[in-house]
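Hi team, as promised in this morning's meeting, here are the two structures we talked about. I've kept the exact order from the run log so nobody has to guess. The first one is mostly here for context; it's the second one we should focus on when we meet again. Sequence first, then the predicted C-alpha coordinates.
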Amino acid sequence: MKHHFQLPLHNRAKAVKSKLVSPLLLFSMALLPACKKDPPAQQQQGYDLEKGLVDFSINGEIAGAMIDTVANTITVAVPNSMNQHSLTATVSVASGVSAKLNSTAAGAGISYDFTQPVVLTLSTPTSQKPLSFKIIVENATSYIGLDGTIRSQKSLNKSYNFYIDQFDGSAYQSINCGPTVTTMAIKWADSTFTKTPVDARSLIRPLGGWWFTGDVQNYLSQNGISNAVDTLKNIDSLVKTNIDNNNLVILCLDMYYVPENEIEYQHTQKFYDANTVGWGHFLLVKGYVQLNNGFYLEIHDPYSDGQLYAGFDSTQIKGQDRYYLDDNIKLSAGIWWPYVIRVAPKGKNITNAANLQLNSIGRQKQVPQASGR
Protein backbone atom coordinates (compact mmCIF):
# COMPACT_ATOMS: atom_id res chain seq x y z
CA MET A 1 0.00 0.00 0.00
CA LYS A 2 1.58 3.25 -1.10
CA HIS A 3 0.89 5.44 1.93
CA HIS A 4 3.35 8.21 2.70
CA PHE A 5 2.53 10.21 5.81
CA GLN A 6 3.43 13.89 5.68
CA LEU A 7 2.25 16.24 8.41
CA PRO A 8 1.82 19.97 7.98
CA LEU A 9 4.51 21.86 9.89
CA HIS A 10 2.09 23.20 12.50
CA ASN A 11 0.79 19.68 13.22
CA ARG A 12 4.10 17.88 13.65
CA ALA A 13 3.74 17.86 17.45
CA LYS A 14 0.34 16.21 17.25
CA ALA A 15 -0.13 12.48 17.43
CA VAL A 16 -0.78 10.80 14.09
CA LYS A 17 -3.10 7.84 13.93
CA SER A 18 -1.28 5.03 12.18
CA LYS A 19 -2.80 2.50 9.83
CA LEU A 20 -0.71 -0.20 11.50
CA VAL A 21 -0.92 -1.20 15.15
CA SER A 22 2.50 -0.64 16.70
CA PRO A 23 4.31 -3.46 18.55
CA LEU A 24 4.06 -1.42 21.75
CA LEU A 25 0.29 -1.17 21.37
CA LEU A 26 -0.02 -4.89 20.74
CA PHE A 27 2.02 -5.59 23.85
CA SER A 28 -0.15 -3.27 25.93
CA MET A 29 -3.32 -4.88 24.63
CA ALA A 30 -2.00 -8.31 25.55
CA LEU A 31 -1.68 -7.22 29.18
CA LEU A 32 -5.34 -6.19 29.48
CA PRO A 33 -7.57 -8.43 31.66
CA ALA A 34 -9.56 -10.92 29.61
CA CYS A 35 -12.82 -9.77 31.16
CA LYS A 36 -12.35 -6.11 30.18
CA LYS A 37 -15.24 -4.79 28.10
CA ASP A 38 -14.62 -3.51 24.59
CA PRO A 39 -14.61 0.30 24.29
CA PRO A 40 -17.76 1.90 22.94
CA ALA A 41 -18.17 1.77 19.16
CA GLN A 42 -17.71 5.52 18.74
CA GLN A 43 -14.20 5.26 20.24
CA GLN A 44 -13.28 2.50 17.80
CA GLN A 45 -14.78 3.86 14.60
CA GLY A 46 -11.93 6.23 13.65
CA TYR A 47 -9.34 3.49 13.82
CA ASP A 48 -11.58 0.93 12.09
CA LEU A 49 -12.33 3.24 9.18
CA GLU A 50 -8.71 4.25 8.69
CA LYS A 51 -7.77 0.60 8.70
CA GLY A 52 -10.51 0.02 6.14
CA LEU A 53 -8.85 2.23 3.52
CA VAL A 54 -6.59 -0.21 1.68
CA ASP A 55 -5.47 1.95 -1.24
CA PHE A 56 -6.19 5.11 -3.19
CA SER A 57 -4.62 5.84 -6.57
CA ILE A 58 -5.07 7.82 -9.76
CA ASN A 59 -4.13 6.36 -13.12
CA GLY A 60 -0.85 7.89 -14.31
CA GLU A 61 0.17 9.24 -10.89
CA ILE A 62 3.85 10.00 -10.40
CA ALA A 63 3.79 9.50 -6.64
CA GLY A 64 1.68 7.26 -4.44
CA ALA A 65 -1.03 8.75 -2.27
CA MET A 66 0.11 10.56 0.87
CA ILE A 67 -2.52 10.14 3.55
CA ASP A 68 -2.54 12.68 6.38
CA THR A 69 -4.76 11.43 9.21
CA VAL A 70 -4.43 14.68 11.16
CA ALA A 71 -5.56 17.04 8.41
CA ASN A 72 -7.69 14.28 6.81
CA THR A 73 -6.28 14.78 3.34
CA ILE A 74 -5.07 12.49 0.58
CA THR A 75 -2.54 14.08 -1.78
CA VAL A 76 -1.66 12.59 -5.16
CA ALA A 77 0.81 13.98 -7.72
CA VAL A 78 0.24 13.67 -11.47
CA PRO A 79 2.27 14.87 -14.49
CA ASN A 80 1.79 18.48 -15.61
CA SER A 81 0.36 17.24 -18.90
CA MET A 82 -2.57 15.34 -17.37
CA ASN A 83 -6.07 16.78 -17.63
CA GLN A 84 -7.34 17.12 -14.07
CA HIS A 85 -10.89 17.63 -15.34
CA SER A 86 -11.00 13.90 -16.05
CA LEU A 87 -8.79 11.63 -13.97
CA THR A 88 -9.50 7.98 -13.25
CA ALA A 89 -9.40 7.10 -9.56
CA THR A 90 -9.34 3.70 -7.89
CA VAL A 91 -10.33 3.16 -4.26
CA SER A 92 -9.82 -0.14 -2.45
CA VAL A 93 -11.41 -0.75 0.94
CA ALA A 94 -11.58 -3.62 3.40
CA SER A 95 -14.55 -5.93 3.65
CA GLY A 96 -17.55 -4.25 5.25
CA VAL A 97 -16.35 -0.71 4.51
CA SER A 98 -18.19 1.51 2.04
CA ALA A 99 -16.51 4.34 0.14
CA LYS A 100 -17.88 7.29 -1.78
CA LEU A 101 -16.18 9.98 -3.81
CA ASN A 102 -18.56 12.85 -3.25
CA SER A 103 -21.95 11.18 -3.79
CA THR A 104 -20.73 8.39 -6.12
CA ALA A 105 -19.87 4.92 -4.87
CA ALA A 106 -16.10 4.57 -5.21
CA GLY A 107 -14.41 1.61 -6.80
CA ALA A 108 -12.09 1.03 -9.72
CA GLY A 109 -11.82 2.98 -12.96
CA ILE A 110 -14.20 5.88 -12.31
CA SER A 111 -13.40 9.32 -13.78
CA TYR A 112 -13.78 12.50 -11.71
CA ASP A 113 -13.19 16.20 -12.22
CA PHE A 114 -10.45 16.94 -9.68
CA THR A 115 -10.46 20.65 -10.46
CA GLN A 116 -13.59 20.67 -8.28
CA PRO A 117 -13.67 19.63 -4.59
CA VAL A 118 -13.66 15.85 -4.19
CA VAL A 119 -14.09 14.15 -0.81
CA LEU A 120 -13.60 10.47 -0.04
CA THR A 121 -16.02 9.27 2.64
CA LEU A 122 -15.68 5.94 4.43
CA SER A 123 -18.39 4.31 6.53
CA THR A 124 -19.49 0.97 7.97
CA PRO A 125 -22.90 -0.24 9.13
CA THR A 126 -21.75 0.06 12.75
CA SER A 127 -19.87 3.37 12.60
CA GLN A 128 -21.75 6.24 14.16
CA LYS A 129 -19.85 8.82 12.13
CA PRO A 130 -18.23 8.49 8.67
CA LEU A 131 -14.58 9.36 8.10
CA SER A 132 -13.85 11.85 5.31
CA PHE A 133 -10.67 12.80 3.43
CA LYS A 134 -10.26 15.76 1.09
CA ILE A 135 -8.57 14.65 -2.14
CA ILE A 136 -5.80 16.98 -3.30
CA VAL A 137 -4.41 16.42 -6.79
CA GLU A 138 -1.23 18.33 -7.59
CA ASN A 139 0.69 18.53 -10.82
CA ALA A 140 4.42 17.81 -10.69
CA THR A 141 5.34 21.49 -10.42
CA SER A 142 3.06 22.17 -7.46
CA TYR A 143 4.08 18.89 -5.83
CA ILE A 144 7.73 19.95 -5.59
CA GLY A 145 6.69 23.25 -4.00
CA LEU A 146 6.32 25.63 -6.95
CA ASP A 147 2.68 26.45 -6.36
CA GLY A 148 1.41 28.84 -9.01
CA THR A 149 1.10 29.42 -12.73
CA ILE A 150 4.40 29.38 -14.61
CA ARG A 151 4.83 32.51 -16.72
CA SER A 152 8.38 31.89 -17.92
CA GLN A 153 11.29 29.63 -17.10
CA LYS A 154 14.69 28.56 -18.35
CA SER A 155 17.22 26.03 -17.15
CA LEU A 156 20.85 25.69 -18.23
CA ASN A 157 20.91 21.97 -17.53
CA LYS A 158 23.10 19.83 -19.76
CA SER A 159 22.63 16.41 -21.28
CA TYR A 160 25.12 15.22 -18.65
CA ASN A 161 25.00 15.59 -14.87
CA PHE A 162 27.30 18.27 -13.46
CA TYR A 163 25.97 18.25 -9.87
CA ILE A 164 28.47 17.40 -7.09
CA ASP A 165 27.80 16.76 -3.39
CA GLN A 166 30.50 18.48 -1.33
CA PHE A 167 30.32 15.61 1.19
CA ASP A 168 32.66 13.30 -0.70
CA GLY A 169 34.61 11.86 2.22
CA SER A 170 37.54 14.27 1.81
CA ALA A 171 39.24 16.01 4.72
CA TYR A 172 37.48 19.37 4.30
CA GLN A 173 34.11 18.23 2.96
CA SER A 174 32.08 20.21 5.49
CA ILE A 175 33.63 23.51 4.36
CA ASN A 176 34.12 22.66 0.69
CA CYS A 177 31.18 24.56 -0.83
CA GLY A 178 33.58 26.93 -2.64
CA PRO A 179 35.66 24.25 -4.40
CA THR A 180 32.51 22.22 -5.12
CA VAL A 181 30.43 25.03 -6.65
CA THR A 182 33.40 26.17 -8.72
CA THR A 183 34.04 22.64 -9.97
CA MET A 184 30.36 22.28 -10.90
CA ALA A 185 30.52 25.56 -12.82
CA ILE A 186 33.59 24.40 -14.76
CA LYS A 187 32.02 21.01 -15.53
CA TRP A 188 28.99 22.87 -16.86
CA ALA A 189 31.15 25.22 -18.93
CA ASP A 190 33.45 22.46 -20.22
CA SER A 191 32.07 18.95 -20.72
CA THR A 192 35.61 17.52 -20.92
CA PHE A 193 36.59 18.76 -17.44
CA THR A 194 37.15 15.80 -15.10
CA LYS A 195 38.75 17.31 -11.99
CA THR A 196 37.09 17.15 -8.58
CA PRO A 197 36.66 19.53 -5.62
CA VAL A 198 39.59 17.72 -4.00
CA ASP A 199 41.76 18.80 -6.94
CA ALA A 200 40.62 22.39 -6.48
CA ARG A 201 41.32 22.25 -2.75
CA SER A 202 44.81 20.88 -3.37
CA LEU A 203 45.69 24.07 -5.28
CA ILE A 204 43.90 26.72 -3.21
CA ARG A 205 43.92 26.63 0.62
CA PRO A 206 45.15 23.01 0.78
CA LEU A 207 45.53 23.24 4.56
CA GLY A 208 41.86 24.06 5.05
CA GLY A 209 39.75 27.17 5.51
CA TRP A 210 36.74 28.60 3.74
CA TRP A 211 37.21 29.61 0.11
CA PHE A 212 36.80 33.30 -0.75
CA THR A 213 35.06 34.75 -3.77
CA GLY A 214 38.49 35.63 -5.16
CA ASP A 215 39.49 31.97 -4.89
CA VAL A 216 36.45 31.01 -6.96
CA GLN A 217 37.35 33.51 -9.66
CA ASN A 218 41.00 32.46 -9.68
CA TYR A 219 40.19 28.78 -10.13
CA LEU A 220 37.68 29.52 -12.89
CA SER A 221 40.31 31.59 -14.72
CA GLN A 222 43.03 28.96 -14.20
CA ASN A 223 40.81 26.52 -16.08
CA GLY A 224 40.03 28.85 -18.97
CA ILE A 225 36.53 29.87 -17.87
CA SER A 226 35.68 33.55 -18.35
CA ASN A 227 34.01 35.15 -15.33
CA ALA A 228 33.17 38.58 -13.97
CA VAL A 229 31.55 40.27 -10.96
CA ASP A 230 28.28 42.19 -10.94
CA THR A 231 26.35 43.98 -8.20
CA LEU A 232 23.29 42.33 -6.72
CA LYS A 233 20.60 44.97 -7.15
CA ASN A 234 17.51 43.76 -9.01
CA ILE A 235 18.00 40.04 -8.46
CA ASP A 236 15.17 38.94 -10.80
CA SER A 237 16.49 40.99 -13.71
CA LEU A 238 20.11 40.01 -13.03
CA VAL A 239 19.40 36.27 -12.88
CA LYS A 240 16.98 36.27 -15.81
CA THR A 241 19.33 38.30 -18.04
CA ASN A 242 22.32 36.07 -17.31
CA ILE A 243 20.45 32.78 -17.68
CA ASP A 244 18.78 33.99 -20.90
CA ASN A 245 22.29 34.82 -22.16
CA ASN A 246 23.49 31.33 -21.16
CA ASN A 247 25.67 32.45 -18.25
CA LEU A 248 25.65 30.87 -14.80
CA VAL A 249 25.57 32.93 -11.59
CA ILE A 250 27.49 32.10 -8.40
CA LEU A 251 26.22 33.51 -5.09
CA CYS A 252 27.98 33.86 -1.75
CA LEU A 253 25.45 34.40 1.03
CA ASP A 254 24.47 33.77 4.64
CA MET A 255 22.15 30.74 4.58
CA TYR A 256 20.83 31.62 8.04
CA TYR A 257 18.41 34.00 6.32
CA VAL A 258 17.06 31.44 3.85
CA PRO A 259 13.99 29.60 5.27
CA GLU A 260 14.14 25.84 5.74
CA ASN A 261 11.50 23.57 4.21
CA GLU A 262 11.00 20.35 6.18
CA ILE A 263 8.66 18.73 3.65
CA GLU A 264 10.84 15.89 2.43
CA TYR A 265 9.55 15.65 -1.13
CA GLN A 266 9.59 19.36 -2.02
CA HIS A 267 12.44 21.14 -3.82
CA THR A 268 11.91 24.65 -2.47
CA GLN A 269 14.07 26.53 0.05
CA LYS A 270 16.93 24.99 2.00
CA PHE A 271 16.77 21.44 3.33
CA TYR A 272 19.31 21.52 6.17
CA ASP A 273 19.88 23.35 9.45
CA ALA A 274 21.80 26.59 9.10
CA ASN A 275 20.60 28.11 12.35
CA THR A 276 23.46 30.44 13.25
CA VAL A 277 24.20 33.88 11.85
CA GLY A 278 27.30 33.86 9.65
CA TRP A 279 26.54 30.57 7.86
CA GLY A 280 28.43 31.59 4.72
CA HIS A 281 27.80 29.43 1.67
CA PHE A 282 28.23 29.31 -2.12
CA LEU A 283 25.34 28.43 -4.46
CA LEU A 284 25.29 27.84 -8.22
CA VAL A 285 22.35 29.46 -10.04
CA LYS A 286 21.55 27.63 -13.28
CA GLY A 287 18.02 28.71 -14.09
CA TYR A 288 14.84 30.45 -12.97
CA VAL A 289 11.09 29.94 -12.76
CA GLN A 290 8.80 32.97 -12.92
CA LEU A 291 5.41 32.18 -11.37
CA ASN A 292 2.39 34.44 -11.19
CA ASN A 293 3.08 34.79 -7.46
CA GLY A 294 6.86 34.62 -7.15
CA PHE A 295 10.29 34.32 -8.77
CA TYR A 296 12.48 31.32 -7.94
CA LEU A 297 16.15 30.77 -8.66
CA GLU A 298 16.93 27.25 -9.90
CA ILE A 299 20.01 26.20 -7.97
CA HIS A 300 22.57 23.46 -7.41
CA ASP A 301 23.27 23.55 -3.66
CA PRO A 302 26.34 21.41 -2.83
CA TYR A 303 25.37 20.81 0.83
CA SER A 304 23.46 17.54 0.27
CA ASP A 305 25.35 15.12 2.50
CA GLY A 306 23.78 12.22 0.59
CA GLN A 307 20.17 13.18 1.38
CA LEU A 308 17.57 12.13 -1.19
CA TYR A 309 14.10 13.42 -1.98
CA ALA A 310 11.18 11.41 -0.61
CA GLY A 311 8.76 11.70 -3.54
CA PHE A 312 8.58 10.38 -7.09
CA ASP A 313 12.19 11.49 -7.56
CA SER A 314 13.45 9.45 -4.61
CA THR A 315 16.74 8.63 -6.34
CA GLN A 316 17.64 12.31 -6.76
CA ILE A 317 19.95 14.05 -4.31
CA LYS A 318 18.40 16.97 -2.45
CA GLY A 319 20.80 19.74 -3.41
CA GLN A 320 20.18 19.14 -7.09
CA ASP A 321 17.51 21.26 -8.81
CA ARG A 322 16.66 23.27 -5.70
CA TYR A 323 14.45 26.38 -5.96
CA TYR A 324 15.08 29.39 -3.70
CA LEU A 325 12.77 32.40 -3.55
CA ASP A 326 14.31 35.64 -4.82
CA ASP A 327 13.53 37.81 -1.78
CA ASN A 328 15.21 35.37 0.62
CA ILE A 329 18.30 35.15 -1.58
CA LYS A 330 18.53 38.91 -1.99
CA LEU A 331 18.31 39.41 1.78
CA SER A 332 20.90 36.77 2.66
CA ALA A 333 23.33 37.78 -0.09
CA GLY A 334 22.86 41.47 0.67
CA ILE A 335 23.93 40.87 4.24
CA TRP A 336 26.91 38.65 3.34
CA TRP A 337 28.18 39.66 -0.15
CA PRO A 338 25.91 41.85 -2.36
CA TYR A 339 27.55 40.76 -5.60
CA VAL A 340 27.51 37.79 -7.94
CA ILE A 341 30.08 35.98 -10.08
CA ARG A 342 28.91 35.50 -13.66
CA VAL A 343 30.27 32.45 -15.50
CA ALA A 344 30.41 31.99 -19.27
CA PRO A 345 30.62 28.73 -21.23
CA LYS A 346 34.13 27.76 -22.27
CA GLY A 347 35.21 29.73 -25.31
CA LYS A 348 32.87 32.65 -24.54
CA ASN A 349 33.93 35.91 -22.93
CA ILE A 350 32.16 37.79 -20.17
CA THR A 351 32.95 41.29 -18.89
CA ASN A 352 32.31 43.18 -15.68
CA ALA A 353 29.12 45.17 -15.51
CA ALA A 354 29.45 48.84 -16.46
CA ASN A 355 28.93 50.03 -12.89
CA LEU A 356 31.92 47.98 -11.73
CA GLN A 357 34.26 48.58 -14.64
CA LEU A 358 35.83 51.95 -13.81
CA ASN A 359 35.66 54.54 -11.08
CA SER A 360 36.04 58.31 -11.49
CA ILE A 361 39.83 58.23 -11.87
CA GLY A 362 39.96 55.33 -14.28
CA ARG A 363 40.91 52.47 -11.98
CA GLN A 364 38.97 49.24 -11.65
CA LYS A 365 36.64 49.37 -8.71
CA GLN A 366 37.60 47.01 -5.92
CA VAL A 367 35.00 44.49 -4.82
CA PRO A 368 35.31 43.16 -1.26
CA GLN A 369 35.68 39.40 -0.92
CA ALA A 370 33.55 37.06 1.14
CA SER A 371 33.84 33.37 1.98
CA GLY A 372 31.58 30.36 2.32
CA ARG A 373 31.72 26.95 3.90
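And here is the second protein, the one for discussion:
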Amino acid sequence: MTTYNNQSKLLAAVDCIIFGFDGLHLKILLIKRGFEPALGQWSLMGGFIKKNEDLDEAATRILKKLTGLEGIYLEQLHAFGQPGRDPIDRTISVAYFALIDIHQYEKQLSNDYHPEWFNLNEIPKLIFDHTLMVEAAKEKLRYKAAMHPILFELLPNKFTLPQLQTLYEEIYSASLDKRNFSRKILSTGLLIRQKEKDKINSRRGAYYYKLDKGKYEKKFQSFLNIIPNSHKLR
Protein backbone atom coordinates (compact mmCIF):
# COMPACT_ATOMS: atom_id res chain seq x y z
CA MET A 1 0.00 0.00 0.00
CA THR A 2 1.35 3.38 -0.99
CA THR A 3 1.67 5.94 1.81
CA TYR A 4 3.06 9.42 2.23
CA ASN A 5 6.26 8.98 4.19
CA ASN A 6 7.54 11.40 6.81
CA GLN A 7 4.36 13.49 6.80
CA SER A 8 2.73 14.69 10.01
CA LYS A 9 -0.92 13.95 10.72
CA LEU A 10 -3.37 16.84 11.03
CA LEU A 11 -6.93 17.00 12.31
CA ALA A 12 -9.58 18.63 10.12
CA ALA A 13 -12.66 20.39 11.44
CA VAL A 14 -15.42 22.78 10.41
CA ASP A 15 -16.93 25.71 12.29
CA CYS A 16 -20.30 27.28 11.48
CA ILE A 17 -21.01 31.00 11.88
CA ILE A 18 -24.74 31.72 11.83
CA PHE A 19 -25.92 35.32 11.62
CA GLY A 20 -29.59 36.08 12.17
CA PHE A 21 -31.88 39.10 11.94
CA ASP A 22 -34.93 39.42 14.23
CA GLY A 23 -36.34 42.58 12.70
CA LEU A 24 -34.42 44.89 15.01
CA HIS A 25 -30.92 43.52 15.52
CA LEU A 26 -28.33 41.48 13.68
CA LYS A 27 -27.26 38.59 15.90
CA ILE A 28 -24.97 35.58 16.02
CA LEU A 29 -25.77 32.09 17.28
CA LEU A 30 -23.40 30.56 19.86
CA ILE A 31 -23.38 27.38 21.94
CA LYS A 32 -21.77 26.11 25.13
CA ARG A 33 -18.88 23.82 24.15
CA GLY A 34 -19.63 20.24 25.15
CA PHE A 35 -16.13 18.80 25.64
CA GLU A 36 -12.63 19.67 26.77
CA PRO A 37 -10.70 21.81 26.27
CA ALA A 38 -12.83 24.89 27.06
CA LEU A 39 -15.78 22.80 28.24
CA GLY A 40 -18.83 24.98 28.86
CA GLN A 41 -17.39 28.11 27.23
CA TRP A 42 -19.08 30.01 24.41
CA SER A 43 -18.20 28.68 20.98
CA LEU A 44 -19.18 28.56 17.35
CA MET A 45 -20.77 25.32 16.19
CA GLY A 46 -17.80 23.14 15.33
CA GLY A 47 -16.62 19.56 15.08
CA PHE A 48 -14.28 17.17 13.35
CA ILE A 49 -14.75 15.91 9.79
CA LYS A 50 -15.40 12.19 9.38
CA LYS A 51 -13.40 10.12 6.91
CA ASN A 52 -16.43 9.37 4.74
CA GLU A 53 -17.82 12.91 4.34
CA ASP A 54 -16.86 16.03 2.46
CA LEU A 55 -16.64 19.51 3.97
CA ASP A 56 -20.19 20.57 3.15
CA GLU A 57 -21.63 17.35 4.57
CA ALA A 58 -19.64 17.81 7.76
CA ALA A 59 -20.84 21.39 8.21
CA THR A 60 -24.48 20.39 7.68
CA ARG A 61 -24.22 17.44 10.07
CA ILE A 62 -22.46 19.37 12.83
CA LEU A 63 -24.83 22.34 12.66
CA LYS A 64 -27.88 20.08 12.94
CA LYS A 65 -26.37 18.04 15.79
CA LEU A 66 -25.43 21.07 17.88
CA THR A 67 -28.38 23.37 17.20
CA GLY A 68 -31.13 21.41 15.43
CA LEU A 69 -30.94 23.78 12.45
CA GLU A 70 -31.20 22.26 8.99
CA GLY A 71 -32.11 23.34 5.48
CA ILE A 72 -29.76 26.33 5.74
CA TYR A 73 -27.46 27.32 2.89
CA LEU A 74 -23.93 27.42 4.30
CA GLU A 75 -21.20 29.16 2.35
CA GLN A 76 -17.55 28.30 2.80
CA LEU A 77 -15.65 31.26 4.22
CA HIS A 78 -11.98 30.54 4.89
CA ALA A 79 -9.56 27.96 6.31
CA PHE A 80 -7.93 28.73 9.65
CA GLY A 81 -4.74 26.86 10.41
CA GLN A 82 -2.41 28.68 12.80
CA PRO A 83 -0.27 25.98 14.49
CA GLY A 84 -1.39 26.89 18.01
CA ARG A 85 -5.07 27.58 17.38
CA ASP A 86 -6.12 24.37 19.18
CA PRO A 87 -4.25 23.64 22.44
CA ILE A 88 -4.66 19.86 22.17
CA ASP A 89 -3.58 18.97 18.64
CA ARG A 90 -2.75 20.58 15.32
CA THR A 91 -6.15 21.24 13.78
CA ILE A 92 -7.15 23.03 10.60
CA SER A 93 -10.70 24.34 10.56
CA VAL A 94 -12.74 25.39 7.55
CA ALA A 95 -15.30 28.02 8.53
CA TYR A 96 -18.76 28.32 7.01
CA PHE A 97 -21.28 31.12 7.43
CA ALA A 98 -24.96 31.77 6.83
CA LEU A 99 -27.48 34.58 7.26
CA ILE A 100 -31.01 33.62 8.30
CA ASP A 101 -34.32 35.05 9.47
CA ILE A 102 -34.36 34.15 13.18
CA HIS A 103 -38.15 33.92 13.34
CA GLN A 104 -38.24 31.44 10.46
CA TYR A 105 -35.98 28.95 12.22
CA GLU A 106 -36.66 29.55 15.93
CA LYS A 107 -38.80 26.42 16.30
CA GLN A 108 -35.94 24.23 15.03
CA LEU A 109 -33.49 25.18 17.77
CA SER A 110 -32.53 22.36 20.13
CA ASN A 111 -31.53 23.03 23.74
CA ASP A 112 -28.95 20.22 23.97
CA TYR A 113 -25.98 22.59 23.72
CA HIS A 114 -27.72 25.74 24.99
CA PRO A 115 -27.73 27.70 21.71
CA GLU A 116 -28.27 31.41 22.28
CA TRP A 117 -28.51 34.48 20.05
CA PHE A 118 -26.24 37.43 20.91
CA ASN A 119 -26.23 40.93 19.45
CA LEU A 120 -23.07 41.43 17.40
CA ASN A 121 -21.89 44.20 19.71
CA GLU A 122 -22.41 42.02 22.80
CA ILE A 123 -20.55 38.83 21.86
CA PRO A 124 -18.99 37.08 24.89
CA LYS A 125 -15.44 35.80 24.91
CA LEU A 126 -15.10 32.90 22.47
CA ILE A 127 -12.77 29.91 22.48
CA PHE A 128 -9.63 29.56 20.38
CA ASP A 129 -9.62 31.79 17.27
CA HIS A 130 -13.41 31.94 16.92
CA THR A 131 -13.47 35.72 17.34
CA LEU A 132 -11.16 35.98 14.34
CA MET A 133 -13.54 33.77 12.37
CA VAL A 134 -16.49 35.97 13.29
CA GLU A 135 -14.69 39.13 12.17
CA ALA A 136 -13.81 37.54 8.83
CA ALA A 137 -17.42 36.45 8.38
CA LYS A 138 -18.71 39.97 9.15
CA GLU A 139 -16.50 41.42 6.41
CA LYS A 140 -17.67 38.78 3.96
CA LEU A 141 -21.29 39.44 4.91
CA ARG A 142 -20.92 43.16 4.23
CA TYR A 143 -19.44 42.45 0.83
CA LYS A 144 -22.21 40.02 -0.12
CA ALA A 145 -24.89 42.39 1.15
CA ALA A 146 -23.62 44.99 -1.31
CA MET A 147 -23.40 42.63 -4.27
CA HIS A 148 -26.53 40.52 -3.82
CA PRO A 149 -30.12 41.08 -2.60
CA ILE A 150 -29.59 38.79 0.41
CA LEU A 151 -30.64 41.48 2.89
CA PHE A 152 -34.13 41.58 1.46
CA GLU A 153 -34.54 37.85 2.14
CA LEU A 154 -34.45 38.69 5.86
CA LEU A 155 -37.34 41.12 5.55
CA PRO A 156 -41.04 40.33 5.23
CA ASN A 157 -42.49 40.19 1.72
CA LYS A 158 -43.50 43.81 2.24
CA PHE A 159 -41.49 46.12 4.46
CA THR A 160 -41.13 49.77 5.46
CA LEU A 161 -38.17 52.04 4.82
CA PRO A 162 -37.40 52.25 8.57
CA GLN A 163 -37.17 48.44 8.67
CA LEU A 164 -34.82 48.44 5.69
CA GLN A 165 -32.68 51.21 7.19
CA THR A 166 -32.35 49.33 10.49
CA LEU A 167 -31.10 46.25 8.65
CA TYR A 168 -28.48 48.21 6.71
CA GLU A 169 -27.31 49.94 9.88
CA GLU A 170 -26.94 46.60 11.66
CA ILE A 171 -24.98 45.02 8.80
CA TYR A 172 -22.57 47.93 8.39
CA SER A 173 -22.42 49.08 12.03
CA ALA A 174 -23.15 52.64 10.95
CA SER A 175 -25.86 55.24 11.53
CA LEU A 176 -27.57 56.47 8.37
CA ASP A 177 -29.39 59.76 8.03
CA LYS A 178 -33.10 58.98 7.71
CA ARG A 179 -33.95 61.52 5.00
CA ASN A 180 -30.81 60.87 2.99
CA PHE A 181 -31.35 57.10 3.18
CA SER A 182 -34.96 57.37 2.02
CA ARG A 183 -34.03 59.70 -0.84
CA LYS A 184 -31.23 57.47 -2.09
CA ILE A 185 -33.13 54.21 -1.75
CA LEU A 186 -36.18 55.56 -3.57
CA SER A 187 -34.08 57.14 -6.33
CA THR A 188 -32.92 53.68 -7.40
CA GLY A 189 -36.40 52.91 -8.68
CA LEU A 190 -36.06 49.35 -7.41
CA LEU A 191 -38.71 49.49 -4.70
CA ILE A 192 -42.41 49.20 -5.41
CA ARG A 193 -44.60 51.20 -3.01
CA GLN A 194 -47.72 49.44 -1.76
CA LYS A 195 -51.07 51.01 -0.89
CA GLU A 196 -51.02 49.83 2.71
CA LYS A 197 -49.28 51.56 5.61
CA ASP A 198 -47.73 50.25 8.80
CA LYS A 199 -49.62 52.13 11.51
CA ILE A 200 -48.41 49.98 14.41
CA ASN A 201 -44.85 51.30 14.57
CA SER A 202 -45.51 54.77 13.18
CA ARG A 203 -48.09 57.35 14.27
CA ARG A 204 -48.39 58.79 10.75
CA GLY A 205 -48.03 55.42 9.14
CA ALA A 206 -45.13 54.25 6.95
CA TYR A 207 -45.81 52.90 3.49
CA TYR A 208 -44.93 49.31 2.78
CA TYR A 209 -42.61 48.50 -0.14
CA LYS A 210 -41.60 45.45 -2.12
CA LEU A 211 -38.30 44.85 -3.92
CA ASP A 212 -38.36 44.43 -7.68
CA LYS A 213 -35.87 41.55 -7.72
CA GLY A 214 -35.67 41.46 -11.49
CA LYS A 215 -34.47 45.05 -11.65
CA TYR A 216 -32.19 44.53 -8.65
CA GLU A 217 -30.23 41.81 -10.45
CA LYS A 218 -29.64 44.19 -13.36
CA LYS A 219 -28.98 47.37 -11.39
CA PHE A 220 -27.50 46.29 -8.05
CA GLN A 221 -24.83 48.99 -8.42
CA SER A 222 -27.54 51.50 -7.56
CA PHE A 223 -27.54 50.25 -3.99
CA LEU A 224 -23.80 50.86 -3.53
CA ASN A 225 -24.56 54.56 -3.15
CA ILE A 226 -26.30 54.00 0.19
CA ILE A 227 -23.68 51.68 1.69
CA PRO A 228 -21.08 53.26 4.01
CA ASN A 229 -17.58 53.17 2.45
CA SER A 230 -18.92 51.20 -0.50
CA HIS A 231 -15.77 52.00 -2.50
CA LYS A 232 -13.94 49.52 -0.29
CA LEU A 233 -16.15 46.72 -1.53
CA ARG A 234 -15.21 47.03 -5.18
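Starting points for discussion:
The beta strands are 11-21, 26-32, 42-43, 45-48, 75-80, 91-101, 116-119, 159-160, 191-198, 206-211.
The domain at 152-233 is CATH 1.10.10.10 (Arc Repressor Mutant, subunit A).
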